Amino acid sequence: MSMSGVIVRRLAVIGVGLIGGSLARALRRAGVVGEIVGVDLDRDNLVRAHEFGVVDCGAETLAAGVAGADLVFLSVPVCAIPAVVRDLIPHLAPGAIVTDGGSVKGEVVAACEPLMPPGTHFVGGHPIAGTEHSGVEASFATLYEGKRCIVTPTPRTDVTALGTVVRLWEAAGSEVVLMDAEKHDRLVAAISHLPHMVAYALVNAVEGYDRFEEGILRYSAGGFRDFTRIASSDPAMWRDIALMNREGVIEMMDHFAAYFATLRSLVAAGDADGLERFFRESKESRDAIL
Ligand SMILES: NC(=O)C1=CN([C@@H]2O[C@H](COP(=O)(O)OP(=O)(O)OC[C@H]3O[C@@H](n4cnc5c(N)ncnc54)[C@H](O)[C@@H]3O)[C@@H](O)[C@H]2O)C=CC1
Ligand SMILES: O=C(O)C(=O)Cc1ccc(O)cc1
């Protein structure tokens, strides 16, 4: 490999699942990384990551994984990120950049940035790309192509470290958007976290509906399956997102409940015009994003 386009000589990926595995694959394909080291609590997942060639080697410990790395990418459930950063800091190389792909940014950045020793840097990030599958076997090199990645610098963020993180996501095929972490959390509460909450609740509600004393989900057709695909996502990941973006998620759940109540009133009143208007407005907004 020519070293001319290399952005990161040694990349450490902590948590080599869908998100970490896909970034490793994308960056390797783009020829912008030298060596990729993986660390994962799940030994079998790490062995598979090595077998698939997603990482060049699996490290037994966080210390060995981050030693000599110029960039560390954290792709573990969001509540684990601050503790992992605290644990890896003593082993970081001078000048190292630590960045993440977690779905919540406010608390992650607020917890991690102040921990960084002088000369090392934390930059928060979140690719707006994923699937309902997890583990390294679900990862693929094109996951980030044509997708946005939100990077959340603060007034304290080192501009060179920020530039490196931006170039990495661009090398993976993403369009990078810089955004304040608090705004990020409200935005993803609306476009990602609320839909997941609604999908999980919908599946449980229908499964828990016992009027017919038999499981009725097996009768479900395309619409139900399309709408609830994301309820197959990893429960531990979504537990952490709901815990960490509590304010944003609650605000959006309340906002949604008001719209749901409006719709219920229209149904209860038999308001034909109101119902059609409600559905037309929604269809126009939805068609516009296709
Ligand atoms: N799944 C998705 O569609 C998206 C997920 N994210 C975020 O990316 C992060 C990772 O998610 P996925 O890759 O989907 O999950 P995943 O379950 O596919 O991968 C996470 C990996 O981290 C490992 N792990 C967990 N705790 C660890 C620890 N303390 N130390 C080392 N390894 C540990 C797990 O064994 C697992 O292999 C999460 O923060 C999530 O919010 C961001 C965008 C999309
Ligand atoms: O599967 C899907 O469609 C998703 O919405 C995936 C997803 C999940 C979490 C994120 O923070 C970003 C993207």
TrEMBL record:
GO terms for molecular function: NAD+ binding; prephenate dehydrogenase (NAD+) activity; prephenate dehydrogenase (NADP+) activity. The keyword Amino-acid biosynthesis applies. The keyword Secreted does not apply. It holds the Pfam family PDH_N. Pathway: Amino-acid biosynthesis; L-tyrosine biosynthesis; (4-hydroxyphenyl)pyruvate from prephenate (NAD(+) route): step 1/1. It is an enzyme of class 1 (oxidoreductase). Gene3D superfamilies: 6-phosphogluconate dehydrogenase C-terminal like domain (1.10.3660.10), NAD(P)-binding Rossmann-like Domain (3.40.50.720). One of its GO terms (biological process) is tyrosine biosynthetic process. It catalyses: prephenate + NAD(+) = 3-(4-hydroxyphenyl)pyruvate + CO2 + NADH. It comes from the Bacteria. Its EC number is 1.3.1.12. Keywords: Amino-acid biosynthesis, Aromatic amino acid biosynthesis, NAD, Oxidoreductase, Tyrosine biosynthesis. Residues 9-290 form the Prephenate/arogenate dehydrogenase domain. Belongs to the prephenate/arogenate dehydrogenase family. This is prephenate dehydrogenase. It comes from Geobacter pickeringii. The lineage of its organism: Bacteria, Pseudomonadati, Thermodesulfobacteriota, Desulfuromonadia, Geobacterales.
